[in-house]
Design brief:
This protein is an alpha/beta fold. The chain has two domains: 187 residues, 3-Layer(aba) Sandwich (Rossmann fold); 60 residues, rRNA adenine dimethylase, C-terminal domain (Helicase, Ruva Protein, domain 3, Orthogonal Bundle), CATH 1.10.8. The chain has twelve helices and nine strands. Strands 4-3-2-5-6-9-7 form a seven-stranded mixed β-sheet, with helices on both faces. The protein binds S-adenosylmethionine.
Length: 259
Amino acid sequence: MIRAKKHFGQNFLKDRIVLEKIIQAISKDTKFIVEIGPGLGDLTQELLKISRVKAIEIDEDLIPFLRQKFKEQLASANLTLLNADASKLFEQGLDENQYFLVANLPYYVASNLILSALKDKKCLGLIVMVQKEVALKFCAKAGDSDFSALGVLSSLICEKEFLFEVPAHCFEPAPKVTSAVMMLKKECEFEEICDIKSFEKFLRASFKAPRKTLLSNLKAYKTELLELFKALNLKENIRPHELCAKSYLKLFQNLKDSL
Ligand code: SAM
């Protein structure tokens, strides 16, 4: 018997209807899917009905089980199985071919994996299950109270959609939180727009104290900002969540020599 490991974020999705809804959300012309964390392979099995799949699993104890379960698909190369830590693999890229990411992500590392996928030029987009609050953050729009750096980054390069909630009882073992499935479809790459490392640093400073004003979070640049606010027709007491992604980019581009 395989026991779920907490430290790998193993909550296996058992609900057939949710599995089917995830599959329905995937575009019909998808040719190659990368799945992070196949676990016991329930989602993998459904994905294989619509596309070629590369599955990356960190837990070596699950590999023999998956090799046995997907013997035929592995033999026919419809499935490639890799025992690796996806976070580390992103340093070299998850694959040399363009791919769509589909996953029920481990909660402990979900946001970082999504950001890495957005930065990976081979990634066309993703449909992932994450903790509901994380999905809300990525899908938030300017003005929403949970619009944060994650929302700014995804807004800049993606079309985004919060698809549906998934209650805890759909998993084995049941997590303590509600989950949700979201879709991010890439429309361009960060490198076409900005130097992503510096921009992320700028966003961290902008959202340092989310309830304070943006001006107070970026007080080191007060003089320049006040001029920019005037030019962009922004009120001086604007709060970080109220500014749209494009305006963040404009501020960054104008300030970047002083940052
Ligand atoms: N896909 C399965 C499902 O839907 O039932 C399992 C999902 S479970 C929430 C997350 C899976 O990701 C686990 O199998 C876990 O071992 C794996 N995992 C955790 N961290 C990982 C990492 N850094 N790289 C690759 N797989 C990881």
